[in-house]
């Protein structure tokens, strides 16, 4: 579905855009597509079992799956990144923070295949980035913002699109439609690191938040961040 001109959500089990039989409606992350000239850039790519549905969804909105040039990963969890090995075979460029890149290369417990009773398919990203790094993809400037805690490699991506500051936030905020945090069972989850990332996120300036699961925020997205920060400090200190 189109969220802004040229910006689409093309996957996400909580939104009813993708579904599979692994473990119900929370299995697949939100997958976003940016149409930049004749190219398409994805943010996350889902669990792999739904990639055919994602391609069908793209066709429904007039997007050619063959135009996908690049995929930015928010983190290494199975539901966000397992399709990376499929994209790799298609010659699509994969970009991630260095700690996410290390996790998907090994496919170890940091990728949480065990949570889905699946084996994560390891792959090498083409470019690993660090906090604050600016990318230029087909003329669009994209900033990678490292927000570790849910996983050590968690990274959000900031763009300016149609005059709005848009943040692809991954699982740092309210992922499954309840609560205010990403899942806290990851082997590399860390509470204090997570609190510091919420503080950092609350100081960012953005108009639209597109998270890794569940609801997008087009109105006062920082309210959700501040609520999460407040709850984290009450629960986790
Ligand atoms: Zn996650």
Question: What does the model show?
Answer:
This protein has six helices and twelve strands. It is α/β, with parallel strands linked by helices. It has one domain: Ribonuclease Z/Hydroxyacylglutathione hydrolase-like (Metallo-beta-lactamase, Chain A, 4-Layer Sandwich). The chain has a seven-stranded mixed β-sheet with strand order 1-2-3-4-5-6-7. It has a five-stranded mixed β-sheet with strand order 8-9-10-11-12, with no helix packed on it. α5 runs antiparallel to α6. It is globular. The mean pLDDT is 94. The protein binds zinc ion. The site of zinc ion has 7 residues, from loops.
Pick out its properties.
single chain; 237 residues; alpha/beta; 5-stranded mixed β-sheet; 6 helices; binds zinc ion
Reading side by side through the largest sheet, how are the strands ordered? 1-2-3-4-5-6-7
Largest sheet: 7 strands, mixed
Tell me what the CATH architecture is: 4-Layer Sandwich
Which class of secondary structure composition applies to the elements?
Answer: alpha/beta
How many alpha or pi helices?
A: 6
Rg computed from alpha carbons, rounded to a whole number of angstroms: 16 Å
The CATH topology label is Metallo-beta-lactamase, Chain A
Mean pLDDT: 94
How many β-strands, per DSSP?
Answer: 12
Domain count: the total is: 1
Task: Give the uncertain stretches in residue-range form.
Answer: none
Could you state the CATH homologous superfamily? Ribonuclease Z/Hydroxyacylglutathione hydrolase-like
Distance between the termini: 39 Å
SSE run:
EEEEHEHHEHEEEEEHEH
The rough form would be described as globular
The first-level CATH class name? Alpha Beta
Binned, the helix content reads 10-25%
Task: Spell out which ligands are present.
Answer: zinc ion
């Amino acid at each position: 579905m189109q969220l802004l001109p040229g910006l689409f959500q093309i996957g996400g089990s909580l939104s009813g855009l993708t579904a599979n039989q692994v473990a119900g409606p929370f299995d697949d992350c939100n997958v976003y597509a940016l149409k930049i000239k004749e190219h398409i850039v994805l943010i996350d790519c889902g669990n792999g079992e739904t990639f055919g549905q994602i391609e069908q969804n793209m066709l429904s909105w007039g997007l050619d799956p063959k135009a996908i040039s690049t995929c930015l990963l928010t983190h290494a969890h199975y539901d966000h990144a397992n399709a990376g090995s499929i994209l790799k075979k298609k010659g699509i460029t994969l970009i991630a923070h260095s700690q996410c890149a290390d996790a998907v290369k090994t496919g170890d417990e940091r990728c949480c295949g065990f949570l889905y009773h699946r084996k994560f398919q390891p792959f090498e990203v083409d470019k690993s980035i660090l906090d604050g790094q600016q990318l230029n993809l087909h003329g669009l400037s994209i900033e990678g913002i490292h927000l570790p805690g849910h996983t050590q490699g968690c990274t959000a991506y900031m763009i300016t699109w149609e005059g709005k500051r848009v943040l692809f936030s991954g699982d740092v905020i309210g992922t499954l439609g309840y609560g205010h945090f990403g899942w806290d069972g990851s082997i590399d989850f860390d509470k204090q690191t997570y609190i510091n990332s919420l503080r950092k996120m609350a100081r960012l300036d953005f108009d639209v938040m597109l998270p890794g699961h569940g609801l997008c925020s087009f109105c006062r997205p920082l309210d959700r961040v501040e609520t999460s920060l407040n709850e984290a400090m009450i629960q986790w200190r």
